[in-house]
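Lecture 7 notes: from sequence to structure.
We start with the chain below.
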Amino acid sequence: MSVQINKQKVKRGALITLGSVLVVVIIGFLTYANFTYSKGYRNGMVIKISSKGMMFKTWEGQLNLGAYTNEGEGAPTTIWEFSVPSSNDQVLEDINTSIDNGKRVKLHYKEKLMTLPWRGDTKYLIYKVDILE
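Predicted structure tokens for the same chain:
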């Protein structure tokens, strides 16, 4: 008895298996990349906001947390870097208003597990700004 292998069915089965594995890997990666690891807020003065990037332009900023220590001379500052999604114009407008008026802000953020080029240079994405008095 000889077993005859249908090469066309084997190729089709291999392509379906490979395609299925590829789809599962892509869905897994996108789920991992968009998972929110933590949410929170930080207070301080925004000292910088700039549009950066070669292919994907993103808004990157720095927040001076204003932390002081008793060590050494002067008052060292703590800088926290963040990204603003390009789709969130209201956040960018609020940050610019706070810079123009010299006001402290409370930046609400979502921390992602990884960075993506079109999302920004940092894992911290600002979604809301409260201007403090």
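Points to note: The chain has two domains: 1-34, 36-131. The mean pLDDT is 88.
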